[in-house]
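#struct-pred

JT: dropping the chains for the assembly here, can someone run the whole complex?
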Amino acid sequence: MQWWEYLLKYGKVFLMGGAVCFIGQLLINRTKMTSARILVTFLLLGVVLEAVGVFSHIKEWGGAGITVPITGFGSSLAKGAIDGSKISLFHAVTFGLASVSAGLTAAIVCGFLVALIFKSKPKKL
Amino acid sequence: MDGKAYCEYVSKTAPRTAELKTLLAAFCVGGVICMLGQGFTDLYAYLLPQAEESLVGSLTSMTMIFLGALFTGLGIYDKIGSVAGAGSIVPITGFANSIASPAMEFRKEGIVFGLMAKMFVIAGPVIVTGVVSSVIVGVIYRVIAVA
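RK: done, full complex below.
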């Protein structure tokens, strides 16, 4: 790849990721949604986009701009379930969680270790 | 003045320029975090040329989650978040932050009922939604596949 191709690719990633977070901020400003609701909303968006088959097209354009936001987590869940559904009902039900096991394990273990090692600072409001 | 009237009063007097600033900050910080993720994806794809796309993706999310948790521990992530808003919440690093931050805060209430229980205050709803919706998607696709 030429240097300008990288520039274009990372530019697209920036725009895509920025747009997703822009929508999130718009929701926070307009509806006073809490961060838990924002995360749940975007996760569901990822699940739905993957389930209807649109996600891979967005990913082709925006790369990590759509997979790094929590929409990517939702997409992996749905993709795992869809892949599993080709094998059996058992796999259809269990492969969703299996496909995000890496991220979930990392989140739980890192969160646990960080809380053991670091002390919480008083929050300034 | 009741609660509703007060809310209307606040939304009328709050400066409008502040909203544009928050949107711009969310856009830029979110975009930069995603570019960082793309950087790790390209790095892992380069280091592991034989690896499947799913492995590269998993390694990228693990790295981003590790960084999100680490910067939460160092107290840097909350500082970014106070400026960036959704730009720091929506990326997967924000998910890591939502686990690490309450875990740190409630550690003083004990390891089991403080740290371990409270780390899922925000992540719990996210995980439940994700697992339930993925099961629904899986069952629907299985029914279509069989029928």
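JT: nice. The longest helix of chain B spans residues 17-47. DSSP finds eight helices and no strands in chain B.
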